[in-house]
Design brief:
heterodimer, A: 313 residues, mainly alpha, 2 domains, 14 helices, elongated, B: 343 residues, alpha/beta, four-stranded antiparallel sheet, 13 helices, binds adenosine-5'-triphosphate, binds magnesium ion
Chain lengths: 313, 343
């Protein structure tokens, strides 16, 4: 198991390197001269040249890249070009907000999807099955921003049930919970469907297995057979799916955060790109990539917990 | 006076002893897109406490479906037991609720299957899989159930049961897994064990070990066994009675000796002829040409008639009923009884 994690971590090195290259190129290839952006529109060419030197922009590209990497390795992500704040500090705050959103989303969407999928499988071809499947197709085919706007319009604006702008404090406070409800619902909505469908297919498959017949032959209650024997096995592909969908989820988070002004990494990234604030954009993209890798690592850990055969491979 | 007291009538002899399990006219059909499959079509037999009944027949003749019908494990749909009676210790099982059947399964009637490699839950430790039934039926605590699980593993002769109890199925061989299955099945002291081809998927040497284990456990625990097999060699060594099935029906039933010395049905004779024997100087008169009929297209008359070398016009017109030819020996064949053969 430990070996597997080490292997995973090793695999993530090239991914991180790729993201660093991408972030760096973003800065190099973006239209506009960063030195000029920093200097402001009224600066003289001398001043701009001065700033360019200070920023190391006069050095060869490879040297710049090396400097960039060594800075990042030390946790120095530079300063925002717009408001001169530390990118690392801004990101630290934003990452907490995004992690909250992810957790709140997964905390309801995964159990709900698993429950819906299991019930649909048990009552295969019944009414409940059809309703669940229709719901999950709707969830998959509607874009996040549409669901977000819909929920915001009705639950937030019209009926004034829940706040829909920004974060209301840490998750464990009532205001925090109230504020996160709509964004978490929105983001979760695109996730419930795939989880429900995968669970349904997986449970149906497992119910045909010989060991289910054994469990029944022992005289276990049908509920026990489903939950303890079928579901535990059926969850293995579901966990894989969650891992595969991590990127999709992060993409959804970017949109959701923008809609609800949720102060997370996604919103930060969008804002930074729109404002040509390249150090901030770089940092935000890097942390989204790290989030992706972390989710996959957690999935691997879960996988090992669920399937004892993994540990012995 | 004292003489009279000693001569108290023996009730167990007078009253017709109820068998542990009696199956009567069992019909289990499958509704499929290819038609109605009459997989089991009027099967009757009974099993006595502590004895072994073998059910033999070619592949597809309905042995497993019969066993699954008793356990009520036939997948519904497409399957359904449409008629018949299954009495366990005098108690009718047909018509019982699912929950009542669940109370019997594993506690009174257990089953082991043909596929040891896939019959255990891959993500649960074998000890937990044995303990589960004990907690369910015997109300044991985790600790008690674990103790008993280790004891069961020892009983089925798994070496170092104290460590094996915490292993996962994938850490064990097929033979070991089948032993675990037996441990699961016998953990709650059931009175009847249905073993559906328990050794078919195993190596020959392992087969013999498993069968020997079942025999010794039967001696120890006095469990009745329904042993499903297509191997008459296995029957000779293990069974007290034999039921020969063909195309969803019982064609012959007899004590084990009578099957080998006085088989009456041409199908049984065909099965016997296809078993390699050591004293095989006798000419093999009967072999079984052709194959089992498709369950949706059963032949008219005797179902075996298209393959029977002795079939007459009566055989293809009218289905023969099971008739008694000797004590405890019944045959469904118009030609029976035939004169004694063999020896
Ligand atoms: N789930 C099912 N759906 C449709 N038909 C079935 C199903 N299960 C069994 N059958 C039918 O029942 C018939 C008897 O099958 P069964 O498994 O009882 O045979 P068997 O005697 O146990 O054979 P084997 O020696 O191969 O195990 C088969 O011909 C098959 O067509
Ligand atoms: Mg079978």
């Amino acid at each position: 198991m430990g070996q597997q994690i080490a292997y995973r971590l090793l695999l993530s090195v090239p991914v991180l390197l790729g993201v660093l290259v991408f972030g760096f190129l973003l800065l190099k290839l973006a239209p506009g001269d960063p030195a000029m952006v920093v200097a402001g529109p009224s600066a003289t060419p001398d001043v701009v040249e001065q700033i360019r030197k200070e920023m190391g922009l006069d050095q060869p590209t490879l040297v710049q890249f090396w400097r960039y990497i060594s800075r990042v390795a030390q946790g120095d992500l530079g300063r925002s070009m717009i408001n001169n704040t530390s990118v690392a500090e801004e990101l630290a705050l934003a990452m907490v907000a995004t992690a909250e959103l992810m957790i709140a989303c997964l905390a309801w969407a995964v159990p709900a999807g698993i429950a819906m999928g299991t019930i649909a499988a048990v009552f295969q071809r019944g009414l409940i099955d059809r309703v669940v499947m229709a719901f999950s197709v709707a969830g998959v085919s509607m874009p996040v921003f549409f669901i977000g706007l819909l929920l915001m319009q009705y639950l937030g604006y019209k009926w004034q049930l829940l706040p829909f702008l920004g974060r209301g404090g840490p998750l464990w406070t009532l205001e925090g919970l109230r504020h996160i409800t709509l964004p978490a619902m929105t983001l979760g909505f695109i996730f419930v469907g795939p989880v429900a469908r995968m669970t349904r297919a997986s449970v149906l498959d497992v119910l045909k297995a010989d060991f289910i017949r054994t469990a029944r032959a022992k005289g276990l209650r049908e509920k026990t057979v489903i939950i303890r024997h079928a579901l535990r096995n059926a969850l293995i592909p579901v966990v894989t799916l969650v891992g595969l969908q991590a990127g999709y989820l992060l993409g959804g988070a970017v949109v959701t955060e923008s809609i609800y002004s949720w102060p997370g990494v996604g919103r930060l990234a969008v804002g930074a790109i729109l404002a040509s604030d390249m150090p901030l954009a770089q940092g935000a993209i890097l942390s989204l990539a790290i989030a992706f890798l972390v989710i996959n690592l957690i999935v691997d850990l879960l996988y090992g917990l669920l399937d004892p055969r993994v540990q012995h491979r | 006076m004292s003489v009279l007291v000693q001569e108290k009538p023996d009730t167990s002899v007078q009253a017709t002893a109820t068998p542990l399990l009696s199956v009567d006219g069992l019909k289990t059909y499958f509704k499929t897109s290819g038609g109605l499959f009459k997989a089991v079509d009027g099967v009757s037999f009974s099993v006595e406490a502590g004895k072994t009944l073998a059910i033999v027949g070619e592949s597809g003749c309905g042995k497993s479906v019969t066993a699954m019908s008793i356990m009520r494990l036939v997948p519904e749909p497409p399957g359904e037991t449409v008629a018949g009676s299954i009495r366990y210790a005098g108690d009718e099982l047909i018509g019982k609720s699912r929950r009542e059947i669940e109370d019997l399964r594993g506690a009174e009637i257990s089953m082991i299957f043909q596929e040891p490699m896939t019959s255990l839950n891959p993500v649960a430790r074998v000890g937990a899989q044995i303990a589960e039934g004990l907690k369910r039926h015997k109300g044991m605590t985790d600790a008690q159930a674990r103790e008993r699980a280790i004891e069961m593993l020892r009983l089925v002769r798994i070496p170092s049961p104290e460590t094996r109890v915490d292993e996962f199925p994938h850490q064990m061989s097929g033979g070991m897994r089948q032993r675990v299955m037996i441990a699961i099945a016998l953990a709650c002291d059931p009175k009847l064990l249905i073993a559906d081809e328990p050794t078919t998927a195993l190596d020959v040497t392992i087969q013999a070990q498993i069968l020997e284990l079942l025999r010794s456990l039967q001696d120890k625990l006095k469990t009745a066994i329904i042993l499903i097999t297509h191997d008459l060699g296995v029957v000779a060594e293990n069974a007290h009675r034999v039921v020969v099935m063909y195309a969803g029906r019982v064609v012959e039933t007899a004590p084990v000796d009578a099957i080998f010395s006085d088989a009456q049905h041409p199908y049984t004779l065909g099965l016997l002829a296809s078993v390699p024997r050591f004293d095989d100087d006798a000419e093999r008169l009967l072999t079984i040409p052709g194959s089992v009929p498709h369950p949706a297209h059963m032949p008219a008359g005797c179902r075996f008639s298209p393959r029977c070398t002795l079939a007459t016009s009566k055989c293809t017109a009218e289905e023969p009923p099971l008739r008694s030819v000797a004590s405890g020996h019944e045959v469904a064949c118009w030609l029976a009884p035939i004169e004694k053969h063999g020896s």
